[in-house]
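User: I'm putting together notes for a lab meeting next week and I want to include a structural view of one of the chains we've been expressing. I don't have a solved structure, so I'd like a prediction I can at least talk through. The sequence is below, exactly as it appears in our construct file.
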Amino acid sequence: MTKGVIVLAGKKKDTLQVRFQTDKGKEVTKTVPQVEISAGLQRALADEKSRRELEGKEVVLEVDKGEPRRVRLPHEPVSAAPASSQGQSAPASGIAGRPQSPPRTQPATTAAGAHGASQRRKHFHNPYNFVPAPPRDTQHPELGDHEPPGHHRFEMGRYSGVIRVRMRCESPLLVVDAARAEAYREDPQHKIYPVRLDAEGKPYVAPTSVKGMLRAAYEAVTNSRLAVFEGWDRRLAMRRAARVDVVPVRVVSVARGALELAVLKQVWLKAPAKLRRYASMAAGDKGKGEAKAALRYPDGTLPQHRDHVWVTVDAKGYVTQIRKWQDPVGAGEWHEGWVYITNANIKNKRCERVFVVSKQDRTIPLIGDDANRVCKLWQDLIRDYQEIHKKDLEARRQKKQQPQDYLGDEPGKTAWSRHVYERDADDLGKWGFCYASLNGHRIDGLYPVAISRQLFEVTPLELLPANLRPATRMQDLSPADRVFGWVNQQGADAWKGLLRVGPVECVTADAVESFTHPGLPLAILGQPKPQQARFYVAADKSGKAQRDGLSKEQAGYTSNKGLRGRKVYPHQRLPEDHWHNPNQDRTQSRRNGVYQEYYRPNGQRDSQNRSLLGWVRPGSEFQFDLHVMNLSEVELGALLWLLSLPEGHFHRLGGGKPLGFGSVRLEIDWNQTCLADGDAWQQFYRRLYAQSPGAASQTQPTGAPSAPKFISAFEHAVSSCYGSGRPFKQIPFIAAFLRAAKGFDDGLPVHYPRVGDPNQQHAPPPSPDGEGYEWFVANERVSKQQCEGLALPDLAADAGLPVLARQEDRPGKGQKGAPPKGGPKPGGGKRFGGPRR
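Assistant: Thanks for the context. Below is the predicted structure for the 837-residue chain, given as structure tokens.
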């Protein structure tokens, strides 16, 4: 914490600056972003009289990398609510009049949009967040890495036995029987799932599911290594800005450790020649009107991708004549070229391209690591494209539709680009032509289309510290590996673990709530989108959220960043009647302030969602035994701590967690629990062996220690390793875990991001399409006129995200709040709202 002095800047003295000393003792004056201004200061800045009195006043602030953060008056708490949340208007501008994102301490009235037009923006919580995973101390005697004890004997000073656990469902539990799923008659791609039952007709919860739930929690609170982190050794990609900053190139040759590219000299407006192909209006035409609009060969056939051709081109870059390479050509200036077809992947697309080659093309030879680097850039980008759209292509295949079919103007219905579905598209030599980003003679990137996705600087794996990556040796096992087991992802080694989950028994009669066929249509569940770096990438290795307002490049996967941590789905504190009459569509009306997020609006059933024939009722109870062997005090303490969370805290189990399903309360039944150290077990078995035949036998050791001893040992170990003087519950990953277990108590709804009218009284209802990409598109409006760029907040201090407006809902010509004629205009057109091409 640092003290500073207020300095007011700007013509109206409404821009807050603060003068303070840096860690090196240097005095600096910095402008304070509005998101870092406290409630009291915002109120004072909004009032002209109060604003004049601020000059020279003392403030308290925090300094992060030389920048002022959380600037507040000395009497204000850190989490003071912004003025606008109390019905007052926030200042309309921050740095040099640039509209700022809302203060993240509470939902707020924010200055957003062109010219800082104030909007009351409704807030929500994202269904998932992250528990930080800071770099580990692998040498710590308890929380560090070492080989586990064996199973062959009871170890002295280690604890073994059985823990009886009772599990109660706070919200419905989804346990589906995938083996008995059936296809929906009207759409066979839609699956209907019954509840999985045991031999007695009770809901069956697999012990492995319980073990997975416990392991995920145990990893988080002991800051153990990740059990699995496969597939993240390639770079992810982001959508590039809509500007032409690439050049067309021809792949001359590709060999191991050698690559030669030729930059095309013959271009028109910095682009290859345009080949007329599609019509402007082509409703119901899978070819988007190419039968009539396309320029053809003299024999009437259509030019195909990679055709070797002769062309004539007019001054505007349009091909006027095209001949096959082997055919004779007439008078005129004919150019050698290659047809490059990427399909009707955009609503307004009219032309494909012809890459014209000439003797003036500049060659760029690459050898060794540089050649391998560029080839890897291409492979990673193409594989990223194909991974993202795998489900989209599968959906078309099941409907017997072709990827290149133009099914409509809406995003997702246009044709898919060729590089998205061609199997050998990642083979640069076979692909032949592409676009390159040049920095002198250095190739910074290769792209299949001019406005393409762009690879981030580093892979997710590179941002994960080595001591958090899955172990590859037995001596490197972290606490969760030792207790729950380990499989070497890079070899044949494995470890059974020191914990086993026994059968999970349902002890509640009539625990299943059944629905009539064809069941309850579940809402669409979102897919992980790690390409959204504002949510998945941290400001540093500790997992701290990035600040708002960064550009897409600044917020991306770069070497100075980290990962947010372990993904969790916070408990959703829903009203009691939220699950009443579940198979009734109530999605367009709010009940006790929340929408029916789990139901697909209009009862829609297709390949994107699933239907349920039942679920386990809230209030149902289960019980199971945890068999443990040779746990240390700290290892056992962490387990008992997780099984003894405060009242109102829950774990998450089963499917549908983003929709509120699967919150379960765990408690220990101490009457059925037996824990003892190795010495007590050895004495027990010696006495058992020494007993005379027919004597009453003791069934278990007596005098087991109480739980507080173990829990205290665990808390002390975490505090000593990660506390830095903070109390146990304030250590970031513990605070975040407890927040996830308790849920949010601010009354905000929990759902995936969606757009709407921020001026409406309530947030928008769920959409049948379940699309969230529009919110992320709106969030990229980071410019002088529009400032979003919101990062997912830190879980422990998460005050929600705002509902953002669609581009067409933002002020325009003739609308209130529109920019004056000739003035700056909002950017980020609607054409960037579709699936990545």
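A couple of points you could mention at the meeting. The chain has 16 helices and 40 strands. Residues 79-120, 811-837 have pLDDT under 50 and may be disordered.

User: Perfect, that's what I needed.
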